[in-house]
Amino acid sequence: MSRPLAPSLLLLAGISLLAMALSVSVGSVTVPISDLLSTLAGGGSTLHQTLIFELRLPRTLAAFATGGLLAVAGALMQVLLRNPLADPYVLGLSGGAAVGALLAMLAGLGAALVSGSAFAGALLATLLVFGLAHGTGSWTPSRLLLTGVVVAAGWGAVITLMLAIAPAQRLPGMLYWLMGDVSYARAPWPGLMLLLIVCLMLFPLGRSLNVLARGPLQAAALGVAVRPLEWLIYLVASLLTATAVTTAGSIGFVGLVVPHMLRLVLGNDQRIILPACALAGGTLLVLADTLARVVIAPEQLPVGVITALLGVPTFLYLLYRSRV
Amino acid sequence: MNPLNAHNLVIDVPGRTGGQAMDFTVGEGQVWGVLGPNGAGKTTLLHTLAGLRQARSGEVRLGGTALSDMKRRLVSQQLGLVFQERHDEFPATVLETALIGRHPWLSPWQMESGEDLAIAEQALKQLDVAHLSDRLVSTLSGGERQRVAIATVLAQNPATWLLDEPSNHLDLHHQVAVMELLKAQAGAGRAIFMCLHDLNLAARWCDHLLLLFPNGEACWGPAETMLVPSALERLYNQKLVTVEADGAPVFVPVKG
User: What transmembrane ranges does the database entry give (chain A) (predicted)?
Assistant: First the structure.
């Protein structure tokens, strides 16, 4: 808690900007950095203007917002469950969103309704997990985590069932959504705004979250109103996750890996970790999406594949090291 | 200071019906010890007094106001609690841990100031763990962790201290050092209320005792009236021999 706040966050912000610049300039047509700057300033050729403002920049910003939202949601859930291995994906929130989205796709509904349905699915999944885990007693972190994992497995089965009975012409779209993809994301602003608002809103709560990470009794003894704070975190984390999956489908491991990595380097002061998660999570997904666009160009990979391929070994390594 | 007061208090020990109502006030300068066998409800009593657990009936008051009607933050400025069990799933250094004791005194927008840092460092020094400041708590020994936990409440600086087995894991020297520290806190106008396993520590350092029997029965009062060998034998279901040493009674369990 005594570590200097500004330098590490400024460094991360700088890296984020560089990653976004890279992501916008790299692709089928490479935009040199000088052209990129002049286009962003309002000049440049019409080709560059269209390419940057209509295609690449929205996608890059959407990737950034999604990554940031997922990482902050993951960090919050880890504090709430006092378990460094919790994240929206592991807890089945992404699964619920996927079931919602696939149902809408099966019904042949339009993109807006698919998003709405995914949002509803994520919120339903959260209610289900927290409602069931609450039971007759109080939330215990291990019960919450177990409930989440089991509910996630249930969602998995429902997803498989829906894929099995889906008509062939709907399958590719459904699969692509499941794998997580930002190529159709064209509205980055709601996600970005939410990310900014949440980071600002959480800052004054940061120290309370630090205390809560030491257990609810200790937190209450130090003056934290535990139950309201837990509900707030849970609602905010659900909202963040729902917005992220609505933007880009089901993308795993960002919420798990990013907060964990940052804690190893920066310690566990939430006033630093939460904004750092927003920046680093965004950067990670921007870079992963850039990779997804260029690895087998002109074909594109879904970004969820890249994050999972990076996330799985990282998760296993951390698990192996942590000896829980 | 606002005295902590149990008013017709019956604690809620799972699986026990009834239980005697308790009425006592932990006043300025007093050092209270709670004695009782395993499972008698010592920790439950402590948590109930701190407002972390519902009482079965009656209430806990701080300066005349029911604890349940007060904001947690206000309570935590007057009441500190050293837990028996601690959670450190997340990495935290010793200094960071002592600094969370300042939480009740800081507004949401305030960062810890240099003054808070100085208070935390001073507390660590008083508990003889200042040299461990930058170590992760998870790498410390049991006794060192116990001293860090006590330092955290020292940094919190409450008028009333509640402690759950503060002598746990401590070596002889640090047991005495901690008891001296608590005695000095009481001498400075604060109040101490602690559960103890060690009858002899209680006999030596406490001026008031509360005996908690497994059936929910309880009695309390000045230490000299409570240290009756027959009552203590009934409390622990253990024959005792009493000797006098260094100006205080010493109770030794009889073999066999």
Answer: 61-81, 88-107, 113-132, 144-167, 187-205, 243-265, 272-295, 301-320
